[in-house]
Amino acid sequence: MVIVVDTNVFVSACLGRGASAAVIAGCLRQRFVPLMGAALLAEYEDVLSRGRLFATSRLDATEREELLDIFLAHGRWTRIYFGWRPNLRDEGDNHLIELAVAGGADYVVSQNLRDLKRHELKFPGLHAVTPSALLKIEEHE
Less crowded by CB within 10 Å, the N or C end of the chain? Predict the structure, then answer.
């Protein structure tokens, strides 16, 4: 199953939160193939550098960097050659859809479905789901 993991899911996994941590673990166990692109990687690196955000994290900064490196090693680098505009109300989320379309993803996994579900363009076969919904889908396949 090919997926795009929104930054908020990776952050939640670093904080040790259930379904998000299970999705990242699924990527490391090769149950899911996460796509990665330049914009998403830049967003991950930016958010992971915010120390205060991880005050309650089980992982220190070095461990978070190591987790990201391992996660990247299990993913598929995908170049985006076409921007789909206008699409989402939050311009900052369009790169997730573009990455998913470019890489043929089945799902965009996010904690924030509100913005991802309000789209102007339709991409059959691409669905936005929460981490817990993805895990339920995987159980039934």
Answer: C
